[in-house]
Amino acid sequence: MSDDPLLSVSNLRTEFSTPDGPLVAVDDVSFEVGRGETVCLVGESGSGKTVTCESLTRLVPESGEIADGSVEFEGSDLTELSPSALRRIRGDRIAHVFQNPQNALDPVYSVGEQVAEAVQYHREISDEAARARARSLLDRVGIPNAAARLDDYPHEFSGGMRQRVVIAIALASDPDLLVADEPTTALDVTIETRILRLLAELQAERDMGLLFVTHDLGVVAEIADRVVVMYAGKVMERGPVENIFERPAHPYTQALLRCLPGRGGPLEPIGGSLPDLRDPPAGCRFHPRCPHARAECKSGEQPPLYDARGRTQSASCVFYDDDHDASVVRESARENGETSNGTKSVADGETSDEASDGRRERR
Ligand SMILES: Nc1ncnc2c1ncn2[C@@H]1O[C@H](COP(=O)(O)OP(=O)(O)OP(=O)(O)O)[C@@H](O)[C@H]1O
Ligand code: NI
């Protein structure tokens, strides 16, 4: 086995043609997912998380196309594979759970048949063995009395139950990589916890890589090894979860940590709104909303991903180039957290330790 990551996304660019001109939903996005690793993709609504997930196996809607970049998965570039070769990987080696899975189940087949079919899709096992495996998968995702429900049809299940069935189908092929776009958002906390545990178990058993989109920082703290922060189609920051929570480098990450739920403090919305992606601002995409923006943030290209804290954490922010003092943005994160949160700030070591301890315990 090589040391190459399981998935390596480089300079990915996905464009949609719209009546008002081209819209670049994913712009020069790069990140990796290792075997057995969980990477959480976070960012405000509309930042390009779903389109990034869809681009991996070329599942973007018809008006979209992958205009540039590569998606290396175990030695092949998925952007260049033939449709039939890609189909063999999709649903087998790489499984997806989509954000809006209303149409993911076929109304005319029982859920047992659909899970069993997914089990048998790429593997030759008897109908009986596939049915037994379907039962066990449905049981593991928290369908009560799974054996008795195998012959029920999707409409006989609630929305949350159907989502669990969709997750069971995704896991049926024992994928090497699971791409899960807010898979537990519609579920109650008990079931969410159960599914997150199941994913962690599968990772331990099978070394499965997991790319997970969520708006819940509690979930990020619980499952992530590394975090990729997106804004307006760009990667703003990447790094290990502990660093991102304890010492967020990019002002956008700092603001995002205060505006998403899951860390206990009062939520503080980010002022202003996402730019129009058909005509994004020059320079750093976040500059119109950034409390630290200076002249050089407002022109040219999005800054490169500078090393923010050693090689593992990087931020697309000029304060981390050689000519600026990054302590300006770090201090500000600390002050902001202490004055605006009744609890401790995101830049505060104590809170972050709790977050990472919680994660270790629950894993
Ligand atoms: N089919 C499409 N045609 C045109 N534009 C699209 C299409 N799908 C997505 N977009 C645009 O691409 C951008 C990124 O959308 P995306 O769904 O990836 O955001 P997201 O980060 O997943 O948001 P959310 O958190 O709400 O799910 C948005 O500006 C969106 O309007
Ligand atoms: Ni989305």
Automatic annotation (TrEMBL):
Alphabetical GO biological process terms: peptide transport
Subunit annotation: The complex is composed of two ATP-binding proteins (NikD and NikE), two transmembrane proteins (NikB and NikC) and a solute-binding protein (NikA).
Keyword ATP-binding in annotation: yes
InterPro entries hit by this protein: AAA+_ATPase, ABC_Ni/Peptide_Import, ABC_transporter-like_ATP-bd, ABC_transporter-like_CS, Oligopep_ABC_C, P-loop_NTPase
CDD domains xref list: ABC_NikE_OppD_transporters
Major localization listed first in the record, in broad terms: membrane
Catalytic activity entry: Ni(2+)(out) + ATP + H2O = Ni(2+)(in) + ADP + phosphate + H(+)
Gene Ontology terms, MF aspect: ABC-type nickel transporter activity; ATP binding; ATP hydrolysis activity
Top-rank taxon: Archaea
PROSITE patterns, alphabetized: ABC_TRANSPORTER_1, ABC_TRANSPORTER_2
Region (Disordered): 328-363
Signal peptide boundaries: none
Membrane association type: Peripheral membrane protein
Domain ABC transporter: 7-257
EC class of the enzyme, as a word: translocase
Name of the protein described by the UniProt record: Nickel import system ATP-binding protein NikD
EC number, UniProt record: 7.2.2.11
